[in-house]
């Protein structure tokens, strides 16, 4: 696959990138180099290779999902302007 200068202009227009006319030949060469590299990657035989989801195969450590009061509710509401029984008191905002 080869990219010509008209394709570079079209891609730039679609991407809404302003490209100076002097840069079009250079960009065409760069895009052709990238496509050539991708074609080389497509030639690699990956039959039987498992997809890599992580570099290190280990299970994620998970904590138990438990509802608690934070173990120190008095400290949590200590700086609140208004509180009652470990709950914040706020003005009503929905009618």
Structure description:
The protein has 95 residues and is mostly helical. The chain has a domain of 38 residues. The protein has three helices and two strands, in the order H-H-H-E-E. The chain has a two-stranded antiparallel sheet. Strand 1 and strand 2 form a beta hairpin. The chain is elongated. The model has no long low-confidence stretch (mean pLDDT 89).
Which sequence of SSEs, written as H and E, runs from N to C? HHHEE
* Biggest sheet descriptor: 2 strands, antiparallel
How are the strands of the biggest sheet laid out side by side?
Answer: 1-2
The total strand number stands at: 2
The overall pLDDT average reads 89
Counting DSSP H or I runs of 4 or more residues, the number of helices is 3
Structural class: mainly alpha
Shape: elongated
How far is the N terminus from the C terminus? 63 Å
Helix share bin: 25-40%
Strand proportion, as a percent range, falls in under 5%
Computed over alpha carbons, the radius of gyration is 30 Å
Any low-confidence stretches, pLDDT <50, length ≥5? none
Short description:
The protein is 35% helix and 4% strand. With 95 residues, the protein is mainly alpha-helical.
Core attributes:
mainly alpha
Question: What is the strand and helix layout of this fold?
Answer:
Blueprint lengths: L4 H10 L9 H19 L30 H4 L6 E2 L2 E2 L7
Helix pairs in contact: 1-2
């Amino acid at each position: 696959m080869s990219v010509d200068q008209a394709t570079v202009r079209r891609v730039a227009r679609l991407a809404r990138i302003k490209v100076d006319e002097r840069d079009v030949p250079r960009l065409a060469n760069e895009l052709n180099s990238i496509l050539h590299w991708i074609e080389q990657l497509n030639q690699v035989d990956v039959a039987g290779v498992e997809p890599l989801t992580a570099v290190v195969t280990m299970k994620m450590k998970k904590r138990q999902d438990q509802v608690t009061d934070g173990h120190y509710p008095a400290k949590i509401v200590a700086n609140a302007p208004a509180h009652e029984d470990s709950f914040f008191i706020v003005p009503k905002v929905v009618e």
